[in-house]
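User: I'm putting together a small comparison set for a docking exercise, and I want a reference complex before I start. The sequence is below, and the ligand is 6-O-phosphono-alpha-D-glucopyranose. Could you produce the 3D structure with the ligand included, as structure tokens?
Assistant: Of course. I'll restate your input first, then give the structure tokens for the complex.
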Amino acid sequence: SEAEKGAYPYYMLKEIDEQPGVMRNLIEHYIAEDGSIKIDEELLKRLNQAQRLYIVAAGTSYHAGLVGKELFERLTNIPTEVHVASEFAYNPPLLAEHPFFIFLTQSGETADSRQVLSQVNEWGYPSLTITNVANSTLSREATYTLLLYAGPEIAVASTKAYTGQIALEAILAKAMGELKNIDKAENFNVAKELTFVANGMQALVDGKSEIKEIAEDVLATTRNAFYIGRSIDYDIAQEAALKLKEVSYVQTEGFASGELKHGTIALIEKDTPVIAIITDEKTAKHTRSNTQEVLARGARVIYIASRQLAVAGDQIILPEVHPLLTPLLAIIPCQLLAYYTSLQRGYDVDKPRNLAKSVTVE
Ligand code: G6P
């Protein structure tokens, strides 16, 4: 079956490698030959009627929501908030008059998200669940569902569901924006751009041996590590840090690079690994100046940079893709760094301690 490991030593590596295929599946399922998007127009209209979108999720899906906020705000002009489900459940924000809720969930079973959806249903607001599991609880209980078609995700650390969710958010935002005649959405050729992403992902997974060397060199014995970035690169940094900490038990923080100087830079010692994500043109030079500050305190800095923003000496170079889709590429080396660091330390990367694939208790 699809869920078998085959020649792979671990599901996590298999699932990392499957990501170019996940992109192609989404194009096939959601975009017609003529470029039109195959999403129920009633759903698009109801989304566009919302004054504000509320994305609710947990864990890696929450991080996919952070990127989703960028996509929805830039392509649809609808203000978008992203909430951790367990926080929203007991302390909901003051809502807009016409809210629309988007639940992101690989499994469709996360109890914290289910609890929020029950509340949303009691309030009588419309909702969409984006999930990998058809007929899951969150799918059944939401007004609408969109499926990821990513195939079963077995490794506890989520990889292909994250990139699948972001790609589907991009397709959805494009369709919504186009319906509203927003230039940015009309000019965003999402099928073409996601094809570039799939090719770029393939190049990155093919280059995994270089990432393995960096993991062995920089992360094998460290006690802690930081991922830093600004804007969309901060979103990526948060997911990259979660990946590394959950499978390698290295204490890792994903930090807004400009905020380091307000306290956290005190943690930088000689050889502390700091991995800088640089894919956002507006903030690239600011993040680079933050890396100078940590270098001056002895940090070992690894740069993950988009080709057009890279400078000599950057260790990991990402193929160029649309500026809104860079998380789909930047996360690949970060997933591989986490995977190889876990193996190097002798852990079962598919079944990290204390964690469950789907958390069905609150
Ligand atoms: C668990 C898993 C994470 C996942 C989170 C949310 O904590 O270990 O990998 O991101 O649940 O799961 P969901 O299925 O709702 O995306």
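The first helix runs from residue 11 to 17. Residues 58-61, 105-107, 110, 113, 156, 158, 355, 357-359 surround 6-O-phosphono-alpha-D-glucopyranose (CB under 6 Å).
User: Thanks, that's exactly what I needed.
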